[in-house]
Amino acid sequence: RCAISAPVFFPMADIPTSRPVLPFSHISRIALQQMNAYHPAVVQEVATAVRRDAVVVVGMSVNPHVKEARNALTKANVPFTYLEYGGYLSKWSERLAIKMWSGYPTFPQVFVNGVLIGGGAETKALCESGEIQSLLKQERVAA
């Protein structure tokens, strides 16, 4: 039987998540192997782009929130890398692997200098306020 831990602090976060996170010590070796084998090429592609590029939008076709993030970045003249993984009826398992990697439940997933900033609404707000420029000037988070 696996217990779920109390809320944990994530690196570089000064507030705990309100969602409990299952510690790796409570996941069997076999389950970890299965997790590691779940679309590793997709996860590696996203992780490589996040390490390499200043702004990365990970999304899916037809999703209006993905379009909102991309449009906001374009309007703010912020170049970005866009990675698309299917639509509502395709590549759901690849998107699940990305969610497992990032811990973020929805798309888009927008990264600035290696930091997940959120989705469409967060990206739009940061672009409209000009704060996106401040984030771009910050030092990249080491992978």
What distinguishing features does this structure have?
single chain, four-stranded mixed sheet, disordered N terminus, 143 residues, alpha+beta, globular
Layout of strands and helices, then pairs:
Elements: H1 29-36, H2 40-52, E1 55-59, H3 64-75, E2 81-84, H4 92-102, E3 109-112, E4 115-118, H5 120-129, H6 131-137
Parallel strand pairs: 1-2
Antiparallel strand pairs: 1-3, 3-4
Structure description:
The chain contains six helices and four strands. The chain has helices at 29-36, 40-52, 64-75, 92-102, 120-129, 131-137; strands spanning 55-59, 81-84, 109-112, 115-118. Strand 3 and strand 4 (115-118) form a beta hairpin. The protein has 143 residues and is α+β, with helices and mostly antiparallel strands. The longest helix has 13 residues, at 40-52. Helix 2 (40-52) crosses helix 4. It is 43% helix and 12% strand. The protein has a four-stranded mixed beta sheet, with helices on both faces.
In short:
The protein is α+β, with helices and mostly antiparallel strands and 143 residues long. It has helices at residues 29-36, 40-52, 64-75, 92-102, 120-129, 131-137; strands at residues 55-59, 81-84, 109-112, 115-118.
Sheet/helix structural class: alpha+beta
| Overall 3D shape | globular
Distance between the termini: 33 Å
The value of Rg in angstroms is: 16 Å
Q: Biggest sheet, in brief?
A: 4 strands, mixed
